[in-house]
């Protein structure tokens, strides 16, 4: 599914006047379908910081921006078929945009794409504020004791205001929701000593603990502090697995994308989506636990994941291959389940593991049921 209509390119604006949807239409739009069939929702929202946002309707595509779009595209290509396994599932794309000129431009792009959408897909542009729109939607749903349809929420601000943790928390309270958030590190770093931004940072993090990060002198440690705090806040908000990757322009870190999900499979699929994009060409790509992921799947050193497995399963207990797979899928490693087999073969050929007799038929294979332990 192409979702590149959310990309603004440097073209001139169209001044047409269609009536755009408002947040009060949203609950009807996103509620369960009349048949009761599950509806998947992909919400793509933006929010901006006045001082660093462009004034024009459109702006040049940043060098680092395709990284965000490519990972998103890869992920949705995996996510939508999972959703589609329920044959009657509908998928609704909702774009929330504050600025009327941009919303109108986007509306026009979306309308043009709609003709090519499959019958079970629809798209809507809502002109409004991200936080107000989400609050209206969630209030409506919760007042009717309904659950939010399975939802992938992309939050893509220019800066640090308007994307409060309270909203993320309300979304993640629903059982099948995931978030993909641009964490504007450059802006956070620039504004965290300016007192007028303190309330925005309180809202972004959902706590006041970020203030301790401002005192840290070492740049790497300061960044680790802010990332860890945001990750922990997402986990506390209900994300069971949290990943992030960074987007650089030249040598400059612009922002990190944080992905939060409640589902192991979603975590694994997101890592696969990220790996498909690496190497990133002009922009560097760094993972959650590994300094730099810059190799394609075939070039991955199996020893790296093998060492992580050894560290994770140190005890002399027998390990089921399913447990190793769960580790590979989770946010405890940047590698994913597609890397696991080579890592296990590496451990076997280098005689670092022993296989439980009778738990599998053929050497150097690891079907479900295989058990092994570290020597
Ligand atoms: C970084 S851009 C989004 C880019 C787009 N998601 C993409 O991937 O190509 C941020 C957008 O959010 C819009 N915006 C700013 N504040 C907002 C708010 N409070 N609510 C909704 N949209 C907002 C801006 O006008 C701008 O169009």
In short:
The chain has 375 residues and is an alpha/beta fold. The chain has 13 helices and eleven strands.
Description of the structure:
38% of the residues lie in helices and 18% in strands. It has 375 residues and is an alpha/beta fold. It folds into 2 domains: 5-297, 3-Layer(aba) Sandwich (Rossmann fold), CATH 3.40.50; 300-374, Arc Repressor Mutant, subunit A (Orthogonal Bundle), CATH 1.10.10. α2 crosses α10 and α11 (302-312) packs across α13. The N and C termini lie far apart (46 Å). Bound molecules: S-adenosylmethionine. The site of S-adenosylmethionine has 18 residues, from β1 and β2.
Q: Which SSEs are present, and which pair or pack?
A:
Elements lengths: L25 H5 L8 E9 L17 H20 L5 E8 L2 H15 L6 E7 L2 H14 L7 E7 L7 H8 L4 E7 L1 H7 L6 H8 L5 H4 L4 H19 L3 E9 L2 E10 L2 H14 L7 E2 L15 H11 L6 E2 H9 L10 H10 L3 E3 L15 E4 L1
Parallel strand pairs: 1-2, 1-4, 2-3, 4-5
Antiparallel strand pairs: 5-7, 6-7, 6-8, 9-11, 10-11
The structure holds S-adenosylmethionine.
The site of S-adenosylmethionine has 18 residues, from strand 1 and strand 2.
Question: What is the name of the CATH class of the largest domain?
Answer: Alpha Beta
Main sheet record: 8 strands, mixed
Strand arrangement within the widest β-sheet reads 3-2-1-4-5-7-6-8
Number of domains: 2
Order of helices and strands: HEHEHEHEHEHHHHEEHEHEHHEE
Strand coverage percent: 15-25%
For the record, the CATH architecture of the largest domain stands as 3-Layer(aba) Sandwich
Uncertain runs are: 1-19, 294-298
Radius of gyration: 22 Å
Q: What is the arithmetic mean of pLDDT?
A: 83
Each distinct ligand: S-adenosylmethionine
CATH topology of the largest domain: Rossmann fold
Helical residues, percent? 25-40%
Number of helices: 13
Structural class: alpha/beta
Characterize the overall form.
Answer: globular
How many beta strands in the DSSP annotation? 11
How far from one another are the termini? Answer: 46 Å
């Amino acid at each position: 599914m192409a979702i590149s209509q959310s990309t603004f390119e440097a073209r001139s604006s169209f001044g047409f006047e269609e009536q755009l949807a408002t947040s009060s239409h949203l609950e009807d739009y996103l509620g369960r379908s009349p048949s009761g069939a599950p509806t998947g929702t992909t919400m793509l929202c933006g929010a901006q910081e006045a001082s660093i946002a462009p004034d024009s309707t459109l702006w040049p595509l940043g060098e680092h921006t395709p990284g965000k779009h490519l990972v998103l595209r890869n992920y949705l290509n995996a996510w939508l078929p999972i959703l589609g396994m329920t044959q009657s599932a509908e998928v609704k794309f909702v774009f929330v945009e504050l600025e009327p000129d941009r919303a109108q431009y986007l509306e026009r792009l979306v309308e043009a794409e709609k003709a090519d959408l499959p019958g079970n897909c629809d798209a809507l542009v809502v002109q409004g504020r991200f936080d107000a729109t989400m609050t209206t939607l969630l209030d409506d749903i919760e007042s009717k004791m309904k659950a939010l349809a399975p939802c992938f929420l992309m939050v893509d601000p220019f800066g640090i205001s308007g994307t409060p943790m309270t909203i993320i928390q309300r979304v993640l309270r629903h059982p099948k929701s995931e978030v993909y958030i641009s964490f504007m590190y450059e802006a956070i770093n620039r504004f965290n000593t300016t007192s007028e931004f303190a309330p925005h940072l309180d809202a972004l993090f959902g706590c006041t603990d970020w203030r301790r990060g401002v005192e840290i002198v070492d740049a790497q440690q300061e960044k680790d502090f802010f990332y860890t705090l945001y990750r922990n806040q997402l986990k506390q908000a209900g994300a069971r697995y949290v990943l992030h990757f960074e987007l650089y322009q030249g040598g400059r870190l612009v922002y990190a994308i944080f992905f939060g999900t409640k589902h192991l499979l979603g975590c694994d699929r997101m890592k696969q989506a990220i790996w498909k994009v690496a190497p990133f060409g002009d922009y560097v790509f760094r993972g959650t636990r590994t300094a730099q992921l810059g190799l394609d799947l075939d070039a991955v050193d199996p020893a790296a994941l093998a060492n992580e497995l050894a560290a994770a399963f140190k005890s002399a207990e027998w390990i089921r291959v399913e447990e190793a797979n769960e580790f590979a899928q989770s946010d405890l490693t940047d590698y994913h389940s597609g890397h696991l087999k080579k890592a296990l073969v590496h451990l076997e050929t280098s005689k670092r593991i022993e296989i439980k007799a009778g738990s599998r038929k053929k050497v150097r294979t690891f079907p479900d049921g295989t058990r092994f332990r570290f020597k």
